[in-house]
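As a warm-up, study this chain.
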Amino acid sequence: MIEDRLNAAGQRLDSNLNRLRQQRQRWLPQGHHQMMLSLRLQRAIRARWQDNLGRIRALTHRLQQRSPVHWVRQNHSRLEQMRWRLQQAIDQRLAAQRQNNLRLVAGLRPSIVQRQIEQRQQNSQRITARLHAATRQRLLRQQQRLEQAFGVLSALSPQRVLERGYSLVEAESGLLWHAAALQSALAESDRPLPLLLHFGDGVVPIEARSAQSGSTETGATE
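Now compare it with the structure written out below.
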């Protein structure tokens, strides 16, 4: 298409040159000056046309070099190699996936699944038995500790002390642990002080009176 345009431009240029020649022949009798101008114009037009023709050819060559068709032709071997590598990678991936699927199918056979279930059940039973045994042992140890603690508490109980022959004196305000507390309670009371004597085999109520001499008189209440 570009060559057609160049041919058309050349034809127009030739027609212009012929027209100029005809005009030169008509103007020749009029003077040498007009003829010189015509020649200079003709040379300028031809030089301009040659310059434009060179530029057009250079642009045409550059377009041909950068065209997609030219790029595809140059990189055809590279594209073929890339396509071959891609096909090889796809085939390898499919083969690996096929092998993996076969292994999964083999692992899903009923006999293998049943065997795995039985193994898991046996493991669960063993773990349960061990857990029960450990729980029983722990309960026995806790029970022994409780019995030991109960024995210690029983040995330290005030009731055991009373059973060994001791007694406790209890007033209305509570247990009297010292003689000074009993004397103070008798001194503050203007009537007989009711007391309870705790022994190992029972409780005896009594009334205590304070003598003016400072001694304490006691008498059992009927």
